[in-house]
Each structure stands twice: as structure tokens, then as C-alpha cells.
Amino acid sequence: MKTTILLAIFSIAITTALFSQRATGGRSRSESDYDPMAKPNLVKLNLTSLVLRNIALQYERVLGNKISVACGLRYMPKGSVPFKMPLDDIFNTGGELPDFPAWKVSSISITPEFRFYPKHAGNGFYFAPYGRFRSMSLDIPIDYTDDNNKAQKINAVGTFNSYIGGIMIGSQFISGPIVTLDWFIVGFHYGVSNGKLDIKTSETLSVNDQYELGTILYDFKQNTYSFRNIDYTINANGGSISDKFKALGFRAFGLNLGIKF
Known about the structure:
disordered N terminus
């Protein structure tokens, strides 16, 4: 519902801009007439992130002829884990696969950035050093069969936080008086992540149950490259998993539809 409302708002903005262009002959300002400070505020919606069930907004403020600052907010409401098929491939070791559709994930991230435009701020090619804080929450149900051949269920709940810094190149196009299209071409970042999962069960785990749960976690550790350094403990009431790792990533191919004012 939120996504539909946001798309409707931006569709109205585009329609208004198109009619405004027709009323003035459909011409935008020439390069020599462009004034970055005339409409220094830009609010944008990332269209490509909607495919991943993310709602991402960015506010950009022009500060001078060639520089601006921006801050993005991305939110993914709680739902199924994206990219179920690649995860299935990771865990396809000939045994029983985890029930990925039952796994739930949500996240929120804040991305401040500084932009340098070689020609005009807010228009054209740009370089953007940026930082990012991301917090991701996981809810992972695990089904198992106890020693009495009775189906049981435990749940792992936790949070992972990431602190990232990087640089990106992109290009922003202005269409008419107020409509913009901002293209995140490619960016690379490096950062640190840490987190913990708490595993709880209402049933006391037997020694064999603890062993089976430990086997599941061991397989997870062995079959996911980024989590091979995890630490975990198992006891009669559940256990915990914790990890801290560094990772290199990229940011690319984002299309942001915006308005200037």
C-alpha cells in the first residue's frame, strides 16, 4: 500500500511537469542559463529498490555551483528472504533444505553522501563519497524432529548492524522544470558488520537434539563464505550465534525518480 501511494505521488508530479513543459514549448534551460541554486532541493524515490521490497527515498540539497549533500533512507518491511533460489543453491548439499519462505527479514539503512559535479550541481555526472549504517533484523524458524519422533519448532531472532564507507559515480538528468532522473552507475564500499542471533525453544533439548541443532549451524557455517567465522553455543534451552566480519560490496544500477523545488 505504501509503495502504491508513493508511485501515485510521483506519477502526479511527472504528469504536472509534462503539462508544464508543453505550456512553455517543451524547452528546458540551456547549459549557460542553468542556475543550480534556483531550485536547490531534490526529493527522489528509488524505483529499482521496489523490486526487492525496499522503499528508498533520498533528499539532496545543492550547496554551491558544483557541490551538494544528500541523505538516503531505505526501509524493507518484515517479509520473506529475497533471492530464495540462490540461497537454495548454497544449501543444496543433498540433504533437507532450510524452509526459506518461513524466514523473515527486515532492514533499515541511512546513507549520507557528499556529491561533486564537474559541471553543475544537481545536473550531470558526479562523484559521491558516502557512508552507510544498516540494521537488519532476522526471524528464523527451525523445524526439527525430537528423539520421540515428534515435530518441534525453535526460533532464532537477532540483529546485524553494518558500518560502511565507499565512493560512487552517477549521473543526474533534469527533464523540464521539476522532474529529475538520478542514475547510480556504480559504487564500491568496505565495512564492518556484527550481530547476534538468540535461539530459543520452549522444549528442553536432549543431548541428541542439541547435536542435531549444532549440525544445522555447522552446515550453515561451512556453506556460506561470509559466515565461516561465526561463534555459536548450544544448550538445553537453545543457544546463540554471534559474528563480526569485514566485507567488500558494491552499490549500482539504481534509478531514482525525483522532483526539484
